[in-house]
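Amino acid chain:
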Amino acid sequence: MATEKKTDKNVKTTVFNLIILDESGSMSGLTQQTISGCNETLNVIRSAQKEAGDDTRRSLVSIFAFQNGTEIRSRYLCKNVPIEQVKDITTADYRPWGNTPLYDAIGSTLTDLEM
């Protein structure tokens, strides 16, 4: 999900990119595919930023991983970080386990990012 916010013609457009990763146990057999998909999305954002140029657009990235086991474990891998500073994720970053609280993750993340 990406949204653009522009306030003035002399100000860069800020694009907020949100990637939500299901890190629940049901994803454990899809770890590499999930990591590859996330990194591919990051590369698309990087390419779009490069194509637009630094003078006109600023791309910020948030990656949020969610799951639920004996306790809810949802976390940001990065939050509103310029795409130039975001590194590809690895198996050290993405470790599936637990249950799947998808709607809770979407709602809490969108509410948090609106603030």
Q: What stands out?
A: The helical segments are 31-52, 102-114. The chain has one domain: 2-6+13-114. The longest strand covers residues 13-22. The beta strands are 2-5, 13-22, 57-66, 75-82.
